[in-house]
Amino acid sequence: MGDQMQFIVEKLNQEPFRKNYNLISFDSLEPLQLLQLLSDVLGEIDPKHAVDIREELPEQTAKRMLSLLGILKYKPPGSVSDLSAFRQGLVTGSKPVIHPVLHWLLQRTNELKKRAYLARFLVKLEVPAEFLQDDTVADINTQYEELMEAFKNLHKEHEQLKTSGLSTAEIRRDISAMEEEKDQLVKRVERLKKRVETVQNHQRMLEIARQLRLEKEREESLAQQKQEQKSQLFHAEQRLQRAQLQLKEMQEAVADSKPESLMKKLEEELNFNSYLVTEKLPRELESKKASVYLLQKVMAEPALTQSDLTALQSEINGINAQMNQLIEKRMIKYEPTDSKFSMYRQQASIIARKKEAKAEELQAAREELARLERQAQHRSTQAHGPEGSEVLTEDELKQYVNKLRSKNTLYKKKRLEIAEITAECGILQRTEELLRQRHEAIQQQLQSTEEKKGISGYSYTQEELERVSAVKSEMDEMKGQTLDNMSEMVKKLNAVVAEKKASLAPVIKELRQLRQKCQELTQECDEKKIQYDSCAAGLESNRSALEQEVKGLLEECAQEESNYHYVNCMKRTLEVQLQRAKEELKAYVCPDPQERRRAVREQYTRMILEQENLGKKLREKQKVVRESHGPNMKQMKMWQDFEQLMECKRECFQKQQNQAAIGQVIQEGGKDRLVL
């Protein structure tokens, strides 16, 4: 119990509670304070329960806490076995009930927060069956259950994503790699821009290239849509073939069937159903009623002891023995004429039992067939793909398996090729590194030779010239190709522009007329706008002057109103003081002594006399104390000395007794040695 309280106090002193308790202060909390503390902890788990228990009834508090504890799956400890006692202790704020609850809550706060959050969405609302008969209520209930299942799946995915996240090192490596790729792309784009800037109409060419890229992307999306539509068409054709095959089978079954066979099947089904209704089900109903009657009779009787059960068992055994004796006697006395009837009776009973057994088997087979059909339909609906595809047939499954095998073989081959390429890449990298080292050594040797000969930088200059000449030749080739492409594109664009001009000529004529009309309307609008602005400016100046005047009058009115209220208050105060003065004067002049005593002057006079009398008494008491202070201090000193003297005597007496006891022990020890 002490460890439990220590744990609770430590948790309550931490974030987010910060209660600053110790064991003594926590143990001395009142029941109401304990309940408020429990409500605060529950409010931290579920914010809806962060309430002040003084604002609600005790029954409401207990109901709210019990409901949340039930959602959190709290089980009372063994000491609180009775649920009613636990509820009573929760209502009264009993420490043996509240402390285990706090210990359990504070042990698993994060887990309970998650459980409380999920309970807001996963605690199912029970709807009575009679309300579910309504179609609207049933649809809403199914939609509610579907949303609950969707929430479960999304929460599971969220938890999986949280637990299976990438490490920060991998993310940083990816970010650094992407930044390097971005820098390379930016440099490449800058180089391409510098190359293109020398070409005439490069902006126009860039716009055309952008449109070409968009059209290619659109072409790819259209190709993808075409592929998806082809796959959908293929699946639709497969479904159509299956439906046609089923229709053909049903037509063949209907064509082969005759009215006589159909009537025969219907008669058999009718006979079976009539047998069930008239014979089997009534017998089963009677047997169930009899068993229910016997059970009710047994429940109505008092409880049987072991001796009663033993007596009943012996009675049953005796009755069974009597029945066996009677059957044997009957068999001995059986006449030959009745033997034929008994044989027929036995055969009839055997056939009836076989008929009942076959009927039960048929009923069970029908139920099993219906269950299997429902299961097959459910499996077929589950097997539907996202595009409406159905279950594959045997041939399609074989084709799919063969396709997977070929892909697996191809995958293994490609993986071997990748491994070979990786090994070769490693060799080439090592070769490149060796060649780079040799090249650096040769370069250093060449530089030292050039320095010796006095022509340092010759090889670098020659390499730069070769590189520049190669780049220039590439640029010339690219310019030639670009100019050819641009000339062809310019021709096409000129043709398109000529066509557009021819088609836009009548529109341009109409546009010119509309432009002229627009200019006239614009001039008229500008004139009207100038008039409007001048009028608005005059009205605005008048409005501002009136607003200033109104503002000054309002301030003056407010000032006068405040002065009026102040004067009115002063007037009322003076009237009250004047009234009190009149009453005081009236009471002071009145000959009645009772009325004069009520006057303020008389009251203050009495209080002054009382204080003066009290001061006299205190001064007299002070004088007495001063006179008796010296003798009293002397007497107290004498008593202290007397107390010290008695304490010394007591210590001396105790020492004397101890020495006498030690001497007696020593004498007894000497006597014992003498005896020995």
TrEMBL record:
Major localisation: cytoplasm
Listed InterPro entries: IFT81, IFT81_CH, IFT81_N_sf
Gene3D superfamilies (UniProt xref): Intraflagellar transport protein 81, N-terminal domain
Keyword check for Coiled coil: yes
Entries under Pfam families matching the protein: IFT81_CH (PF18383)
Ranges where the IFT81 calponin homology domain occurs: 3-126
GO CC terms, sorted: ciliary basal body; intraciliary transport particle B
GO MF terms, alphabetically ordered: tubulin binding
Locations listed in the record: Cytoplasm, Cytoskeleton, Cilium basal body
Keyword Transferase in annotation: no
Sorted UniProt keywords: Acetylation, Cell projection, Cilium, Cilium biogenesis/degradation, Coiled coil, Cytoplasm, Cytoskeleton, Differentiation, Phosphoprotein, Spermatogenesis
One record GO biological process: intraciliary transport
Coiled-coil ranges (or none): 137-253, 309-382, 504-563
Function summary: Component of the intraflagellar transport (IFT) complex B: together with IFT74, forms a tubulin-binding module that specifically mediates transport of tubulin within the cilium. Binds tubulin via its CH (calponin-homology)-like region. Required for ciliogenesis. Required for proper regulation of SHH signaling. Plays an important role during spermatogenesis by modulating the assembly and elongation of the sperm flagella.
Family the UniProt entry places it in: Belongs to the IFT81 family.
Protein's name in the database: Intraflagellar transport protein 81 homolog
Biological source species: Grallaria varia
This protein's encoding gene: Ift81
